[in-house]
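TA notes, week 10

Several of you asked for a full example with nothing omitted. So below is the full record: structure tokens for the whole chain, then the designed sequence directly under it. When grading your own attempts, check the secondary structure regions first.
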């Protein structure tokens, strides 16, 4: 009897789903909505949960839209990488939709996030569906740091409409997924980036050796492009053109 109970407990734990920290997401959303200067907050449902995103329309008449994915434990208006790109790309022929990805509590490490990759996949799929409903086109996927791992995992394991992918500060977790991708990719990183990015430069290039559309580019910046917003915007914009 004790053995049966133990087996049932193990089975239950194995089937348990790791859930994002929804309370933290709610706090982020309240802060963003109170201070949002560019774009509009929109709520998108993935499974039974609504997550906040920011839609910012292009200055030109276009259906092309860039979905933007933030990094570890932050939000879709993060002042480093995310906010500069989601606003600047609207002057370069794109609408942007910056989406809230699953976040865990503050004690979580990057490796812990693999447990919520299924939810991350669903949020990107739901963002694509939302754009379709608005008669818009999900043209390019742009992601930073851990968000790039979530994004390449999605691209490698799902049918998708994206024509291009931009990964900024892609850490080593991308290597397993890059080998499965054939769409054009910009692998952009800084010469002062974090160790996981710098140590996997050759491995990322090797994983993408059969992808003729893969481009690796290093610029003078750190992982968060501190004081280098213009370099980030110009480099990404030039590649997209």
């Amino acid at each position: 009897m004790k053995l049966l109970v133990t087996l049932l407990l193990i089975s239950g734990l194995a089937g348990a789903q790791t859930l994002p920290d929804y309370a933290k997401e709610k706090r982020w959303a309240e802060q963003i909505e109170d201070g949002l200067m560019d774009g509009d907050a929109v709520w998108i449902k993935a499974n039974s949960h609504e997550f906040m995103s920011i839609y910012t329309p292009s200055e030109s008449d276009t259906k092309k839209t860039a979905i933007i994915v933030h990094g570890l434990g932050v939000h879709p208006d993060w002042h480093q990488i995310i906010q500069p790109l989601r606003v600047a790309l609207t002057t370069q022929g794109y609408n942007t939709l910056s989406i809230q990805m699953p976040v865990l509590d503050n004690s979580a490490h990057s490796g812990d996030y693999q447990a919520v990759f299924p939810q991350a996949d669903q949020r990107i799929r739901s963002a694509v569906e939302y754009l379709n409903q608005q008669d818009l086109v999900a043209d390019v996927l742009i992601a930073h740091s851990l968000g790039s791992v979530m994004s390449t995992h999605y691209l490698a394991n799902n049918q998708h409409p994206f024509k291009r992918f931009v990964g900024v500060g892609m850490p080593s977790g991308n290597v397993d997924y890059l080998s499965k991708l054939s769409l054009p990719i910009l692998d952009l990183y800084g010469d002062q980036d974090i160790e996981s990015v710098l140590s996997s430069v050759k491995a990322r290039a090797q994983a993408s050796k059969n992808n003729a559309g893969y481009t690796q580019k290093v610029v003078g910046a750190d992982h968060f492009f501190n004081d280098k917003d213009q370099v980030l915007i110009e480099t990404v914009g030039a590649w997209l053109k």
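The longest helix spans residues 117-133. Use that as a sanity check on your answer.
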